[in-house]
Automatic annotation (TrEMBL):
It comes from the Eukaryota. One of its GO terms (molecular function) is metal ion binding. InterPro entries: IsopentenylPP_isomerase_typ1 (IPR011876), NUDIX_hydrolase-like_dom_sf (IPR015797), NUDIX_hydrolase_dom (IPR000086). Residues 80-228 form the Nudix hydrolase domain. The lineage of its organism: Eukaryota, Metazoa, Ecdysozoa, Arthropoda, Hexapoda. Pfam families: NUDIX (PF00293). Pathway: Isoprenoid biosynthesis; dimethylallyl diphosphate biosynthesis; dimethylallyl diphosphate from isopentenyl diphosphate: step 1/1. Catalyzes the 1,3-allylic rearrangement of the homoallylic substrate isopentenyl (IPP) to its highly electrophilic allylic isomer, dimethylallyl diphosphate (DMAPP). This is isopentenyl-diphosphate Delta-isomerase. Its cofactor is Mg(2+).
Amino acid sequence: MLASRLKLLLPRISWLRGCSTTAVGQQQQRQVPTEFAVHDPLQAHALKEQCILVDANDQAIGAASKADCHRVHPETNDVKLHRAFSVFLFNSQGEMLVQKRSSHKITFPNTYTNACCSHPLYEIEQERQESNALGIRVAAQRRLNYELGIPTEELQPQDFRYLTRIHYADTGDGVWGEHEIDYILFLQKDVTLRPNSNEVSEVRYLRRDKIDEAVAKFSAPLTPWFSLILQHRLKLWWDNLHQLEQFEDLSNIQRF
């Protein structure tokens, strides 16, 4: 079923291969608000992208800009709940890719995290599709290409294993935070890496038996979502890369 639906989407997906997140915004002639002028221009422009707002059960209820979805309310400390994904990428030797978010990032700059963490966009129709998490998969392909330079022909949406969803929140620096229903995608494949320096300042592969030692030696903290997943689930999933189907839970949302 997923393969047949992807066949119908191939023309549109081909167009998306040429789109970075900023390219999508540029096509709509969006102007960057002056309040974001202190930030890196590319990152500030990306704040106008439209994320998918959801309720606590992951039912889509609308859209809001990336800025609005990550701004911490000054009185309530609330952050709008929206849909996101986290990709965990492993090579053929079972080593996991981690990246360090660049200093240009507006949310959680200079922090270590998993291979890719981002959002399906409301303005891209295919990324709103919910059946088999197809929209999430298409978004993951797009962002891995944009952030890490992985050629889209090396990764197809059906290559991702969708494991579960996680609901978490973090107020970050008190100005920019997170509140997400986070789709967990696993992928084991040797890929070509050409990191985008505006997004990523460092990449490295970690061994399973060295993960705790490596994290302890990191020169910067972990992102909150990576820290939670590492604490609660990641090691078990990593130990079972070749039998992950037993851990799939597509009906429930894990609450951290």
